[in-house]
């Protein structure tokens, strides 16, 4: 599943972000960051009513993916809030990354992310890859093993319109092909050209983009076949806080 970013033409496996597991789809050309995985302003924090308050829900499916989970967690509840937004904060050793999660556009994805965050799945985990080159700029996270092939033991379907774009400030899921979403995600800090194959489920605040810029400034080893590589200075998610 998530066991799954060299040039943008290499393969959006970058977005799958790991070209070798669920999170990395090696089929697309370099325009795929997540091969592991346009200009727009970073979205402001939303003032919309939270999905919990609205009461609207949708039913999601989170089947086991046949892989040993990187950490023991329960699959999310099938009933997911389907309106409004949810705020979250990724606390890293470089600083905070504020998120605004869009439950109206990607309810099942947001439901999974929130569930994993609440269970501590992302706590004390590395972000093993940063892609920082012409055509894309992303930070890939969400795999406790740090290999780009670890996940939560379940998968879920894409939530795509076919019109997805990936400007700076976008939060999206990494994958290894259609409907193989799991725990891995990528944070876009530079306008990136990818096919609309990666579920967009939120945005990154201005301070968060500054944090990722500081990570990118440290450089990377350039070892990933689809571009970028391991950060020269380790990047650790200390915790993810929802609300």
UniProtKB/TrEMBL annotation:
Low complexity compositional bias, start-end = 33-45
Q: Which family does it belong to?
A: Belongs to the cyclophilin-type PPIase family.
Protein's job: PPIases accelerate the folding of proteins. It catalyzes the cis-trans isomerization of proline imidic peptide bonds in oligopeptides.
Q: Where are the transmembrane segments?
A: none
Reaction catalysed by this chain?
[protein]-peptidylproline (omega=180) = [protein]-peptidylproline (omega=0)
Report the residue ranges that make up the PPIase cyclophilin-type domain in this protein.
Answer: 95-242
By its UniProt entry, which InterPro entries does this protein fall under? Cyclophilin-like_dom_sf, Cyclophilin-type_PPIase_dom, Cyclophilin_A-like
Give the record's keywords alphabetically.
Isomerase, Rotamase, Signal
Checking PANTHER family in the record gives: PEPTIDYL-PROLYL CIS-TRANS ISOMERASE B-RELATED, PEPTIDYL-PROLYL CIS-TRANS ISOMERASE-RELATED
Per the UniProt entry, the signal peptide is: 1-24
Ranges where the record places region Disordered: 22-85, 220-243
Pfam families (alphabetical):
Pro_isomerase
Q: What is this protein called?
A: Peptidyl-prolyl cis-trans isomerase
* This enzyme's EC code(s): 5.2.1.8
Q: Which GO terms describe its molecular function?
A: isomerase activity
């Amino acid at each position: 599943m998530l066991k799954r970013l060299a040039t943008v033409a290499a393969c959006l496996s970058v977005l799958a972000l790991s070209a070798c597991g669920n999170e990395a789809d090696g089929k697309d050309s370099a325009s795929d960051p997540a091969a592991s995985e346009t200009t727009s302003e970073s979205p402001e924090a939303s003032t919309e009513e939270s999905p919990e308050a609205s009461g609207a829900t949708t039913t999601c499916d989170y089947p086991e993916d046949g892989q040993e989970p990187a950490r023991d967690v329960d699959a999310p509840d099938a009933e997911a809030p389907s309106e409004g937004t949810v705020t979250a904060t990724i606390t890293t050793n470089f600083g905070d990354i504020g998120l605004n999660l869009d439950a109206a556009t990607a309810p099942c994805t947001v439901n999974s992310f929130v569930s994993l965050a609440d269970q501590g799945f992302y706590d004390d985990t590395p972000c093993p890859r940063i892609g920082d080159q012409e055509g894309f700029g992303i930070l890939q996270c969400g795999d406790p093993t740090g290999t780009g092939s670890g996940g939560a033991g379940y998968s879920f379907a894409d939530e795509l319109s076919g019109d997805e774009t990936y400007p700076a400030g976008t939060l999206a899921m990494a994958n290894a092909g259609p409907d193989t979403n799991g725990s891995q995600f990528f944070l876009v800090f530079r306008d990136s050209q990818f096919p609309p194959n990666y579920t967009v489920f939120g945005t990154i605040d201005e301070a968060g983009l500054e944090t990722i810029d500081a990570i990118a400034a440290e450089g990377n080893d350039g070892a990933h076949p689809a571009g970028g590589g391991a950060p020269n200075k380790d990047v650790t998610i200390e915790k993810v806080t929802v609300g």
